[in-house]
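Appendix B: complex inputs.
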Amino acid sequence: MAELIARSAFQGLLPLRFGNVEAVEVMAATITSVSPFRGQETKVSKALEKAVGVPFPDAGRVIARDDVRAIWTGMGQCFVLGADPGPLPGAAVTDQTDAWGALAIEGTDARAVLARLVPIDLRPDVFAVGHAARTLFGHMACVLTREAGDRYGIMVFRSMAGSAAHELEGAMRKVAARERLQ
Amino acid sequence: MQIDCPFCGARDIREFTYLGHETYIHRPADEAWSDAWNDYLHNRENPAGMTRDLWFHGSGCGAWLVVTRNTVTHEITGVELAREASRHAG
Ligand SMILES: [Zn+2]
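Resulting structure:
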C-alpha cells in the first residue's frame, strides 16, 4: 500500500506570532457531527454521554470532560471532538475529522484581534469561557469557542484554511502595530 | 440592525439572509390551482408599519426565523423560530 504523507489544514500557514498574540494549529483526533432527529434529543444526549462521557450541549455552549469536547454548532447539531461516539440511534452522525481546520489564538490582545474579524459581542462577560458561537470569521463561516480567559478556538472549513490564515495575519499585524504606538 | 436569534442572541444583520413575507410558511393544503395558490405565489401586501418576514440565520445557527418588524421605524418587536410559527398556525 502507498505510504501517504498526511498534510494538516494549516501546514505552512501556522503558527503566527505578532505582538503578544500567538495562533497555532490544533489537531483533533476525531470530529463527529451529531444531529438528533426531532423528538430524539434527550435519548441521543444520554446515549452520547454513555458513549464518550459528554452529553449534547445547550445552545452556545461547550461541554468538556478529560480530552473529549462536545461543541454546539447550530440548531440541533453538535460536534464531538476527541472521541468517536460511533452510531447513535435517533441521530444523524457523520465523520467531519478532515473537513475542518482548527486553530487556537491566545494572548492579551487575542480578543482585540478577533474583534476585527468576528461580528459578535466578545466582551468577557458576554462570550464567557465555555461558550461557543456559529458566526463569521471575515467572510467565512466558523465555529468559535472561548477556551480560557485569553484563549479562543476557531474552526473553519478546511478549504478556507489559507484565507483564514491570511485574514488572521492581517488582523494580528494591525493589532500589534497599534500596541507598538502606545 | 441586529436580529435577536432565539439560539444565538443579538447578531449583526450580515449573518442573515432575507427571504420574504411569512406567507411562504403558509402553503395552501390543496394541490389544485386556486385563488389561495395565486395569493401564496404572487400577492403580497406592502405595508407601512408592521410586517412579519422570514430571515435565515445562515452564518449562524442555521435557523429560519419569523421576524416581526416595523417598516416605518425599523423596530423589531418579535423573533421566533419559523418551525414553531408554522406549527402554531397548523
Ligand atoms: Zn442563530
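The pocket of zinc ion is lined by residues B 5, 7-8, 57, 60-61, 63 (CB under 6 Å).
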